[in-house]
Write a structure and sequence with these properties.
Elements (H helix, E strand, L loop, with lengths): L16 H24 L4 H11 L6 H32 L3 H15 L9 H14 L5 H29 L1
Helix pairs in contact: 1-6, 2-5, 2-6, 3-4, 3-5, 3-6
């Protein structure tokens, strides 16, 4: 896989006005199309946008975006595990169950920042947010739904970034 740069200068003063507006239009069109696909698949649009943000959360290459998305998926998985842990801890610790589980999440996520390649705490936290924002109990269908929505968002981000980068050349 190539290390194609996907970052686009976004300040109006950094690029010609026509190109600036073109970049904006590309982002808007891809976001609208991605939202349409997400809703057509009966997936949550907010989870799609979290996947989009996770893809762009660190680095400037397509490879970085894919790695960021992998951290996002791991974050969703961690969230599901945390949901199960909270359910298991609640009868034992009551209202302390959630803070105990969150403490474990933060230790895990911040420790993973030392892991080569998939070392993006922001993307992990976006995955955790995706799980907890669903307000649903842990289940494989929920994980599949959140991952699919996030994948659509990451794919949209990647497409937008590639097209936008071509506009700036």
């Amino acid at each position: 896989m190539s290390k194609t740069t996907i970052a686009v200068k976004t300040t109006a003063s950094a690029i010609p006005p026509g190109t600036f507006h073109g970049i904006t239009l590309v982002g808007a069109v891809v976001a609208a199309a991605t939202t349409f696909l997400t809703l057509s698949a009966a997936l949550p649009a907010w989870a799609m946008f979290l996947g989009w943000v996770a893809f762009n959360s660190s680095g400037q290459t397509l490879r970085d975006g894919i790695t960021n998305f992998a951290a996002f998926l791991l974050g969703i998985t961690f969230g599901a595990g945390t949901g199960l842990l909270i359910a298991w801890l609640t009868p034992r610790f009551g209202d302390l169950a959630t803070p105990i589980a969150v403490f474990g999440d933060v230790v895990l996520v911040l420790s993973l920042r030392a892991l080569p390649k998939v070392n993006n705490p922001l993307a992990y936290f976006l995955g955790l947010i995706s799980f907890f924002a669903s307000m649903e109990p842990s289940s494989l269908p929920l994980l599949g739904s959140l991952a699919a929505a996030g994948l659509l968002g990451a794919g949209g981000a990647g497409i937008a970034n590639i097209v936008q980068a071509r506009l700036t050349r």
